[in-house]
């Protein structure tokens, strides 16, 4: 796979394609990042963007993981001391998941976001951004029902992070899109206090997984079922077994199954196939024997045609996910020992 394919596979969108093509031409020394509000334990949403970071490392980029402690504080995720403690638990889990330790830089937001220049730049953005715009940028990120002043400062700081970390590409789930658009519009108009370049950077957005149990709406770490590094092999099997994964879908029918997403297929596509050369679905001889898939499309086609039964697909998915999660589970066990 060439660099452009590695960058864009499974990406919902890149902004702009032209800028990303230029990056793909020369990844050497270029910096890409994802920022995470520290939560202590990685869940499958973190793993999806981490898979993209692994793609980018394979393409030759330097990866920065921002442990966004100040942002988590602004989003009411606990006291600052609590957040710092949970952040420390995340680094080793990312490495256990497969990020290359030699090509990954972990940065805490508080290492630079409390510096005078950064704070003054935040204030400059506060002056130039309307309340309405900042609030809209936060719609899909904000925790809690009522917007606080902190929720308006949050996206402005995130827009600035891309400048202060000298990044060449900002990566995030599709829920980060409006913050990235704010970055692209507001940053080039800044006077700016620092020596960093106040230029808009390209952005890449990964899909958001559908709700595991229903396929309706988005999977969330705060409600519904999610899969995390803490899950045992049995937990994973049970959760995947209960996931929404309809058998064959008749494209002519308008039954509600056609309007739902299939989270089992999504996890195969975004988290499993990028990490394995092939997926083997084990079946007893009497049911046709093992099936082997070199790519996501052939597995999805077999599920659609009925050749692959949902129960067999789920069994295989649980096994592959467990293989991806097992090293992180071990890290958590050691941290808690
Ligand atoms: N908004 C992210 C956290 C975050 C991401 C980046 I990229 C930053 O520069 C700062 C914060 C979230 O929703 O988790």
Automatic annotation (TrEMBL):
SUPFAM superfamilies: Nucleotidylyl transferase (SSF52374). Belongs to the class-I aminoacyl-tRNA synthetase family. TyrS type 3 subfamily. It comes from the Archaea. One of its GO terms (biological process) is tyrosyl-tRNA aminoacylation. A motif ('HIGH' region) lies at residues 38-46. Catalyzes the attachment of tyrosine to tRNA(Tyr) in a two-step reaction: tyrosine is first activated by ATP to form Tyr-AMP and then transferred to the acceptor end of tRNA(Tyr). A motif ('KMSKS' region) lies at residues 218-222. Homodimer. One of its GO terms (molecular function) is ATP binding. GO terms for cellular component: cytoplasm. ATP binds at residue 221. The keyword Translocase does not apply. Keywords: Aminoacyl-tRNA synthetase, ATP-binding, Cytoplasm, Ligase, Nucleotide-binding, Protein biosynthesis. PANTHER family: TYROSINE--TRNA LIGASE, CYTOPLASMIC, TYROSINE-TRNA LIGASE. It is found in: Cytoplasm. The gene is tyrS. It catalyses: tRNA(Tyr) + L-tyrosine + ATP = L-tyrosyl-tRNA(Tyr) + AMP + diphosphate + H(+). L-tyrosine binds at residues 33, 154, 158, 161, 176. Its EC number is 6.1.1.1. This is Tyrosine--tRNA ligase. It holds the Pfam family tRNA-synt_1b. InterPro entries: aa-tRNA-synth_I_CS, aa-tRNA-synth_Ic, Rossmann-like_a/b/a_fold, Tyr-tRNA-ligase, Tyr-tRNA-ligase_3, Tyr-tRNA-ligase_arc/euk-type, Tyr-tRNA_synthase.
């Amino acid at each position: 796979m060439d660099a452009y394919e590695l960058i864009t596979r499974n990406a919902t969108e890149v902004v702009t394609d032209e800028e990303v093509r230029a990056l793909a031409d020369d990844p050497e020394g270029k910096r890409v990042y994802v920022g995470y509000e520290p939560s202590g334990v990685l869940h499958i949403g973190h793993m999806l963007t981490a898979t993209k970071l692994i793609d980018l490392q394979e393409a030759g980029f330097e990866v920065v993981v921002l442990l966004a402690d100040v942002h988590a504080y602004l989003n009411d995720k606990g006291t600052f001391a609590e957040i710092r403690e949970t952040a420390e638990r995340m680094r080793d889990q990312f490495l256990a998941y497969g990020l290359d330790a030699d090509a990954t830089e972990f940065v805490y937001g508080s290492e630079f976001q409390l510096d005078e220049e950064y704070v003054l730049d935040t204030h400059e953005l506060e002056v130039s951004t309307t309340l309405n715009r900042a609030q809209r940028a936060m719609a899909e990120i904000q925790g809690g029902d009522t917007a606080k002043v902190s929720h308006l400062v949050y996206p402005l700081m995130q827009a600035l992070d891309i400048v202060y970390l000298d990044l060449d590409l900002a990566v995030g789930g599709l829920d980060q899109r409006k913050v990235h658009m704010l970055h692209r519009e507001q940053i080039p108009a800044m006077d700016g206090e620092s020596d960093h370049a106040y230029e808009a950077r390209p952005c890449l957005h990964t899909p958001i997984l559908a709700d595991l149990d229903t396929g309706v709406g988005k999977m969330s770490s705060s409600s519904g079922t999610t899969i995390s590094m803490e899950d045992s092999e049995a937990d994973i099997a049970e959760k995947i077994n209960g996931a929404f994964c309809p058998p064959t879908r008749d494209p002519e029918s308008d039954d509600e199954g056609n309007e739902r997403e299939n989270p089992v297929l999504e996890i195969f596509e975004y988290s499993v196939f990028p990490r394995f050369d092939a997926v083997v679905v084990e079946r007893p001889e009497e049911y046709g024997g093992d099936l082997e898939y070199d790519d996501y499309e052939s597995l999805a086609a077999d599920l659609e045609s009925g050749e692959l039964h949902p129960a067999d697909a789920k069994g295989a998915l649980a096994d592959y996910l467990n293989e991806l999660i097992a090293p992180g589970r071990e890290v958590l066990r050691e941290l808690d020992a």
